[in-house]
Please model this.
Amino acid sequence: MSPSHEPPGEACATHTVVVSDLHVTDAQPVLPDKPLWKRYKQRDLFIDDSFERFLAALREELPEDAELVLDGDVFDFDSVMAIPEDPPFPVSWLERRRGLGAEEAKSRFKMRRILADHPVFVRALRDWVMSGRRLVLVIGNHDVELHWRGVRTELYEALDLPPERRGAVRVCAFFYLSCGDTLIEHGNQYDSYCLCDDPLFPTIRWRGTERVRVPFGNLAERFMLNGMGLFNPHVDSSFIKPPLEYLRFFFKTVLPIQPLLGWTWLWTAVVTFFTSLREGFLPAVRDPRRIEDRVAEVARDARATPATVRALHALKVHPAIFSPWRVARELWLDRALALALVVYGSFQVVTVLNVFHRVSPWWALAIFLVLLPPFLLYARSVRSTNDQTERNLLERLPVALEVTGARRVVIGHTHHEHHWLLDGAELLNTGTWSPAYEDVACTVPVGRKCFAWIRPPEGGGPREAGLWEWRDPGFARIEPTRPPGEEGVLQRVARNAGALIRKGRDG
Model:
């Protein structure tokens, strides 16, 4: 979309640092009557100061040819709830309740709002680039609106770089190939709920207006979680609790603040379902005359070849929205429908019986209790498939390494940091720097602030990778491991991927 500033023939970096999933978004004002509402978005929990100290510490350690790769979900457009006081564009009733859509003008407003609320973060990035080092942003699923030329312009203007340093910043459509040895992707292309279906042509047209196609998972956050402010979207345990613990949380915390939570979930789940299907089935806005130019542009920004772009684009998983029942199950709409049928069926049976013999309405409760166990068995049998991202990547890893020539892959997206060793390759996940907390008051943090560091060894030779934790201050290395599991599914997939990689390297 926007032209690359990179001068031709630029040498690759000796040191590459990769950070992902910062989830920088607008600040949530503190509500006096609801101080815990979206506590994770309040200004005192911003990572900006820590991130600035992190980059300052890196500048002391790294040479000037180092590069910083922000590997997706740097900005969280889906969480922005601000609306202009006098909007220059139409704003629907749904946008006023759940945040603006993904048209370019609206995305630019959201980007300005995010950057205005994070001056320290912007200053940290500017200081990094002005020190002579390079900055690369890989687009993820929460910042898919970075595909807009105007949104990137907002970022460039906020950085306020002199002309001679503008070429040190680039934005990559969905991957970056660092120094030929490290493939860096956000990871959402292997998540059927959160992938960008076509990162080469990411926009669609609806009612005459062009907008970025927002993935299903992000529509769920925008429509559902923006209205459920007592649940932290950055940590699974905020939603998944044991039954007794969930009941305790509901009566103690949710009921006094949001007693109609069930209704909020239901109507927003329905909106998410139909919006994701409508936008998912629309064709991409694609100019046939620009396809090859666009592929070449993405390849140039990613430091790859057009053939590599096409190959990695083809490795994406199939979007979940083409399986509507699967989407309904992720939203729990299937269980809502099944429960409604159980209730309706109970009363319908009593109604039919009354035609032949008068019976008490209380028989409906008895029939409901008879039908309830099958419903509960069905509900317990449903398993979410949104945790298969790394399995999908491991299955595709041999091909990804073959077409790129890389030795390793670095991703984020899942918010679970690790450094896995395979036979002849390695997979690093940099986790998240987002405000992930175990409790609604945000006093018990979850996870570590990690980053991948690819650098030459002291004795010379190919670059080596490590996963490190920022402890503010100081760095601590995290030892690599084998993929977990005792011959579980993930372990078998990893073993098969390692065998394929070894076979390919052996010729």
Remarks:
- Residues 333-356 form the longest helix (24 residues).
- The chain has 15 helices and 14 strands.
